[in-house]
Amino acid sequence: MISDLILTNIDAVPGRQIVEHYGLVSGSTVRAKHVGRDIMAGLKNIVGGELKGYTELLGEARNEAVSRMCAQARELGANAVLNIRFSTSSVTAGAAELYAYGTAVRVD
Amino acid sequence: MRFVPKPLRETAEINADPAARRFELVKLMLWAAGALCLLAVVGGWAVDGFVSRIPPEREARWFRVIAVPGALDEEKELDSAQRARLSEARTLLERLRSQPDVVDLPYRLQIIRHEAPNALAFPGGVIALTTGLLREIDGGVPLAFVLGHELGHFAHRDHLRIFGRSAVTGVFLSVIGVDSGAGAAATAADLMQRGFSREQESEADRFSLGLVEALFADTAGAGQIFEKLEKSSGLPSWLLFTATHPDPEGRLRDLKAHATKRELPDRDRGGAAGSGESE
Amino acid sequence: MADLIGLILNLGVPLAMIAVALVSGRMIESRHYRSIREREATLLRLPAIPSRAWDGAREVAEARMVTGSVVVSSDYFRSLLAGLRNLIGGSVRSFETLLDRGRREAVLRMKEQFPEADVIVNVRIETSTIGQQTASRRQQLGTVELIAYGTAIRYVGTPPPSL
Prior knowledge:
The complex is a heterotrimer of chains A (108), B (279) and C (163). Chain B is mostly helical. Chain B is built from twelve helices and four strands. Helix content of chain C is 45%, strand content 25%. A three-stranded antiparallel sheet of chain C has the order 1-4-3. Chain C has helices at 2-42, 76-88, 93-112; strands at 60-73, 90-91, 119-130, 143-155.
């Protein structure tokens, strides 16, 4: 997703050796929908199917969270983030939190 | 793998940016206030424009079965004086509605149980009178003035405006559902749509004066309702701005000024003015 | 008269609550952040990573699961901001601070359960909303539980940290 860093959700980068690690890095963001999306979603609730507006919203939020995590990793001098996990939760009416975390490492 | 401990400096707070948050509330409130104002103004115009195009026949058809909440079904609860007043009101209504300028609607009277004298206009031609009104007001010119006033509202389509605005406001508020401050928003909305505006009231007063003159050729005592209103509420007029019929004292003054301007015959204008100003 | 009092109450009470939440909330928050930064500096040498890999070559003296959890709640001010955000959309920064604080606190508490460890592996961090959902969905309380858990390992031969 984010250019220069290697991102995986397993313990290693296949084919590369881990030199050292720098601990936990994480990125999170809380996004709220706006009235337009809410109305469309309300209408879609009648018909059913994918709520494209919300999919888009959470997709953007996920990208933002991952880029924040990568910013932290870059500052530590890492060039890969391993074992990435995502967590989504609704924190208040109409807003969702996207959280991504992983181990920042340097691979050869 | 070897662990190299390194502290995060710049990006430590990347998930909680304190600087950006400082003005978030101000920005958001300005945005929200601006958007709401715009919506209120534009929406108000739209509603007014749409509503004034509804012709009376269609209004009559749509609102044919409207019933005022809290209306008395039968007249058993009225005493004889009130019942007499009510039948006089019916006769007056028949005479008034045949006047030119009065919009043709299936007018009908309904009674509301309420102590304070008041009269309200509802879509479809329903005029609601309170039991307090039936008790307090005198027959003849004062009663005709009150009925004519409501007919004035119908003629200017004021009642539809209020109906339209309150419906649109209700829908809008439920759609956006602002979290906290819902109480404040509801109060503001309530205030905005409370009763008719001062101007609409004065216009209706003038309309009624014309009707009363046509019927009785004399407008003595037309403003009696205002005196009754102020006396019954016991509050200074400036506090009544949130009431459904605002500022009776001011309207009394306006009424007399208007009557003078049109040189309508009003025998006890002198006496009534004295009692009005002594409040 | 009743109308006037009603008006004052309807506007005044929310404003008063906003003022209180703003002032005290900010004080509490900055104090907490200071404490968090101090403890993070102290516990920097103990990594907590989501990876499962630990040094298989070294002999393990002790290994056990450690957890840390926090329940945070939003204040009136924050909920107001979130509510306003619902009109326009975008990121709700006030909640981001709250959750960031909570999470860092949870991870610190997890580390403090076993500070002599050398590494904490397979760390997972979970978020869940608790608190009553009243009938009106707009009145959600914004109470969040954050939990961090992992397996702490202490190798043989590591000198105990001098505190």
